[in-house]
User: Fold these one by one.
Assistant:
Number 1:
Amino acid sequence: MPGFNFDNYQRNNFLAAKGYPIPKATSTGTTIVGCRFDGGVVIAADTRATEGDIVADKNCEKLHRISPTIWCAGAGTAADCEFVTQLMSSTLELHALSTGRKPRVVTCLTLLKQHLFKYQGHVGAYLIVAGVDPTGPRLFSIHAHGSTDVGYYLSLGSGSMAAMAVLETKWKESLTKEEAMSLCAEAIEAGIWNDLGSGSNVDMCVMEVDNPAVLYRNYRTPNERSTKEKSYKFARGTTAILKEKVRPVVDSVPFDIFEETIIKDDDKMEIDT
Amino acid sequence: MSLRVFPQVPYASSVPKPAISSTQVPELANHIVVSKPPAPMADALNMPSEPSSHPLESRLKNWEQTQFDLKMENLRRLFGTHEPVKRVMELEAVNASLPLYPDVLRRAEVVTGNGAPGSRTDPAREILLGRDGIVDWEDIYGGMEECPLDFHTDLERRIKI
Amino acid sequence: MNGIQVDMKALKAGEVNLGTSIMAVSFDGGVILGADSRTTTGAFIANRVTDKLTQVHDTIWCCRSGSAADTQAVADIVQYHLQMYTVLNAEAPSTRVAAAVFQELCYANKDMLTAGIICAGYDSQYGGEVYSIPLGGSMHKQDYAIAGSGSTYIYGFCNTQYKPNMTKEDTITFIKSALTEAIKWDGSSGGVIRMVVLTKDGVERLIFYPDDYQKD
């Protein structure tokens, strides 16, 4: 069956009782924020993914599309955020098709909170859900245990304190779209600079009434790598060749070689993206 | 009948400890005489039906059933006993006609007890259970039980242990 | 679980907690619910302007304390029940019915829930009523009820200050000063004071900011 596997639960407890340390589950550091403005709502996130104290991805996507007008930013376990939003995306689409109405943010919120509540926090998704629906712009946050909050401005994740500091000082009532965008970007940058778990760039999504939602991938890139002033390549021949010996890898080739072409290609190398 | 929403965690919160004085030595079960293997500690802690005691496991396992029971209980209170009886009979009728379905529509393998929900079902059952508008993990990652992820399980299956 | 010794588990790790000061007071023409607005995750304030007063029917509301997730789930279920009740009986449920649903849910699931709820409402037959449903799932009809971690500090205050059949204004002042004390002494209560006034005229929402209630 898909889902959780409890096979090793008792074994792990036994090992823990014997004094073997249990591997620590690390929650991914993140800064995500959301903010409402007149006629819409904006959410933003940093782009650092971590594995323990190692940066796993410098430019990952933490903004997920649930429906064309409902987006969500995820903190906590990256995989859980990804899959729980995909699941909700499918459910919401199905729901929209069966009712013949546009999906609402509260529907999405209720589905998410009921799903997460079932798993008692073991699905570690902390989300800021935002969007516009026929009732107007909406902004909510959900914690992994299934509790929800409403707000004009919200922040979540390990960098939420830094982000909230910015939001608390600079937020005011009735922001314009541009003001809300720069406020969110600034809040995320506070997370990027002041929280170890957050870093790299700012992603942003703006949802406006009567307009399609716009995703600004890398809205701000404060951590761009500058070109090095000097080349640190070693010149050819820096390492002296003392001895050279060429050995055939295969002794007897099972087929004849008719032609052998060697293409000289110094600087091109295939890199998996 | 109660308004049980969240499945009960079926393990005991304590193990009875026999009162012994310092001069006594607790008797160990003689397995040769009794001709039964020693019961694992887990059995003392868990209900026999629950091999593991992670609270989430039983919650997830009994979730659908609990929600179904709750729904039936609510219907009983609101409309009378006939309503849940009717619903369960409808479900059983659908279950009984399952072999007659064309293969495309027949996805149900998991059918529990009194016609209550297993998670993967055919359209008729899904409509009766009100699940036709819901997508869950099971609907996407069905059939995963056929490809074991670890080597040991794979080998065990292959040489049929 | 033997029903007597209930192992009230502490909140699951990382769970959002409503370390709370909540109260509801019945008065001459109805009932008023009051709450602080702080939700915490450990030492961190997850939300400083939370709404712990939740509507379950037109003029039946509840104050939630305990786990945010659990109480929201319970309130959602009760709301569903009362809607169903209204449709089938073609009349609004009384406060007692709402409280009974709360109680039955809290009692039947008490091993899985961390929820302390005050259910209060107004109906034309009984006027304002207050029911307290604490952790074990019992139900108590009271003139006024206080609950949550901050309530321990204001038992004496409420006991001396509460008078039956107060006016609306006096009741608001009473709740405001009681919650001010609770917020002052309890670390996990704070933020704004929210109130909901339920009378024959319907619902009225009030909010008091720290600069306002802290000055006296």
Note: Residues 46-51, 108-120 of chain B have pLDDT under 50 and may be disordered.
Number 2:
Amino acid sequence: MTLTPNSPNYSSDTDPAIKEFNTTKLLKNARKQAEDRNYKDFFICDVDSHHYETEALPEILQYMDDPVLRHLGMSAGNVGRAGLIPQAIGSQDMAGRVTRYAGRNKEVVPEKPHRDITLTRRWMDAMGVDMACLFPTPMLLLATHPQPEVEVAMARAYNRWLCERILEEDKRIVSMVYLPMNEPHEAEKMIDEFAERKGVVGFLSTGYLKRPVHDNVNMRIYAKLEEHGMPLGFHAAYHWADSSLAQLNKFISVHALGFSFCNIIHMTNWVLNGMPERFPKLKTMWIESGLAWIPFLMQRLDNEYMMRTSDAPLLKKKPSDYMREMFYSSQPIELVDNKEALEVTFKMINAESQLLYSSDYPHWDMDLPSTIYDIPFLGEKAKRDILGGNAQKLFNLDPVMSDWKLEARKAG
Amino acid sequence: MAEKLLCASSDISDTTARICEVEGVEIGVIRHKGTIVAYRNVCPHQGGPVCEGLKMPRVCVEFDEQRRPLRQNFDTAEMHFVCPWHGWEFKIETGEAVGDSKIRLSRYKVVERDENVYVEI
Ligand code: FES
């Protein structure tokens, strides 16, 4: 074994993988996949992708009502988050190994359109994605901020900025906008303010919440979403400080369990408290926990429910029957040596109608459309539905195809 | 199998893989422990440009006599290509995935002759 006495920097700015970083170049093999698999022939929608909203913080803060919080965000020596958004411990980029994290700042874009639109279009065009549902990144942990008023102010400013600067400008980008579930009366106002805005296709609850999802204070939120015909997304996140995860000592552990656990907690409360019976028209989508947790939870809950129906009197059928009617985003789809398990999973969740492709790009565990397209047991129709058709239905989308696909079709 | 010219020997470094295109296929080529190795620049995971990422050593753990970890360290005797898309790591020497040796990069036979490097393709 040859050990290094002093650690060199294996991911310095001068590494060719990082300097002169460009999304299109990084994803050139994705574009080849898109061409080889003829994605030009059908619509692909990515229901969970991200940008780094904190890079546009000075712009976002211009939309903040509270001048004191706005000042807080703009101060801190130079423009910083200054306590507005919780920061997560953990090396998402694996100490520089996933080069797009370090490279992103170096990517050159034209002055117009907005930088986030250019960067988003670049990865979409490379992967063959026509429309994308765009979510923030650090704000996924905003629900764990100890000051609910900060969460509300950030959420409102971000939603306004997103609608005006991004969604208004590019009809290929849509979003389920941030819902501050910890302050239900503010969440209700948020639905009224944003439900009809261009590109808003639903609302998003993120990560670990201060109250359980079935809390009585939330009922008007769900009723309002139902009235507007807007789906509710539960975007999982890990929260290392959560007592159930606090013993885990590695990022891989807290990430692998934390995301699924987050949705397992919300889903268990959602189903066993009869939310699908109380709000039968409210559609829910469970985002970014992979798929393996769903059959696990279905089996656990069904098994106990049959013995303890009296504990869950609102249910008119088994927990798994409700879960099978909900929607799920695909990423990070488990694909290592698990073909049989995956096939059973797809059957158990009615994947052909309930599963929606998501990339989670640019995050480290992103999935390309080929993770769905190359699944051997799916027929062409099922692949196309999961990659785009199901999202089109759930979000009532007017599909907008990417320019390169339209040109490729013309060229035959 | 045809032998194709890849590049001049002097074009190949031992720090960064050079990416050459031969008949529409990208090949990453690097000098490693005195020999030249060449792999297809497509990751067996989701198809990322595996030879274009960082080159990093294996991470190992050092224990005390009671098997309590003392610290982690880099083992520079075993260098890896790290795929930039999701971080799968492959031993440069053999092309094996660190997480599962059954998974390998596809390797090309390389011949160095008259200051030039050729692959069999
Ligand atoms: S494509 Fe190489 S690590 Fe995923």
Note: Strands of chain B lie at 3-8, 18-22, 25-32, 35-40, 55-63, 69-82, 89-91, 107-108, 110-113, 116-120.
